[in-house]
Specification:
Number of strands: 3
Radius of gyration: 24 Å
Distance between the termini: 37 Å
Helix content: over 70%
Largest sheet: 3 strands, mixed
Order of helices and strands: HHHEEEHHHHHHHHHHHHHHHHHHHHH
Bound molecules: zinc ion
Strand content: under 5%
Amino acid sequence: MKNRLIALLLCVVLVPRGFSQNLPDLGDSASADLSPLAEQKIGAQIMRDIRWRDPAYLRDAEVEDYLNRTGERLVAASAGAGMSFEFFGVSDGSLNAFAMPGGKIGVHTGLILAAQSESELAGVLAHEVSHVTQRHIARLVGKQSQTGMVMLASLLVAVLAAKSSAQASQAAIMAGQAAGISSQLAYSRDFEHEADRIGLQTLSTAGYDVRGMAAFFERLQRNGRLYENNAPAYLRTHPLTGERISEMENRVMQMPYRQVPDSLDFQLVRAKLRVGERPSRELLDELELAVAQGKPSPVAARYGLVRAYLALKRLDDAQAALAQLKMEVRRYQVVSPMLAGLEADLHLARRDFPAAVRVMAEARGRFPQSRRLLYGLVSARIEAGQAGDALELAKAETLRTPADAYLWELRARAEAALGKRLPQHYSLGEVYAIQGNYAAAVEQLTLAQAARDGDFFEQSAVDSRLREVKVLLLEQVKERRESSR
Ligand SMILES: [Zn+2]
């Protein structure tokens, strides 16, 4: 526990420094607001730091798929339709969600578990999406000078991303004072009212139950009183008042009543997060009881039970529970990519790779957007001795999403399995370049150059990529030298 706290403190204190060192040129500092382009650049940079360096980033493509599907449904119903957004999970039991520059929205697992309905979770996301579409972050940092902007943006991130502990955000606040910045870091009351109003509209247009938003904030406020100085992280960055809640309730009363059932995926994501990596005896008892009684949701309860058996390596029990689950799925005629993911995980635990390939290949036909099934399929094909098919799929997909470092990593694994040295080092070079580690990327591309097992076109692609990455490396070294002066 203590070690974890220290790690969090380090993380919060280090993020702003590393972040401002690598900060891209913000361009026109004369304009009042942070420009959309600068916002995108900063957002991409922070996201890279979180994704590759923050241990709290939730490495679960299934949960990320779900958050993005839900988030995109809200974005499509908002003024930000067409803007690029990215939703991700943060492994943290506290109630928090935060928006960062460039439409990057983080959600703590604690918040997903505390939401009593999917509309409540969607309500918080809609509020965050509105902070982005109304450009609140840009307006918050916009009044500062170029330097102030850099400092403020990085501190804003530190505070927004601050984890549950009061000390962690205390450290960020102290860093802020040391930098001599007096601007308030939390959103102003006006911004909060605007995000509530527009968020509620978005929630309604997207087809969720609008009562969810008010209900969740009310519960948050009720709980917040118990914490006193240690209020939930969410309340620190989104000051909540009785006035805001009554305003929300008044608006909700004027909107049409709509009962919206939770999606199966919402229930499955919660079941998966609850089980985690090491389910307790009590949780297992509870799941077994829920399955026996067939409630609250028979499919979700059984899904949780299979996950729990899998985590405990009780594979025969998992197999039996999965057979039951498949019967329920047929009876209720429900579909979810997560059901195929679960079946594939059981095959993988038994090291039956061809069966895992069959399940995921079939499911990908029905859920082509699922990153989890894509990653799982490439990886299982390599394990099943089908590296050629794995490479073909990974190649096609890296063309479609060239900024996906994880996919490049899988592609490198397929190439390594096939003994293709030049392509393998080229792909690893892309992994490092996407992570912002240009020195390591240069190293890999140099190895690719020396491999000499490619044709003329592959060789020249390596040469030109190496030239590009060397330029990026020089720029990075120069920026770091300047900011340390
Ligand atoms: Zn807010």
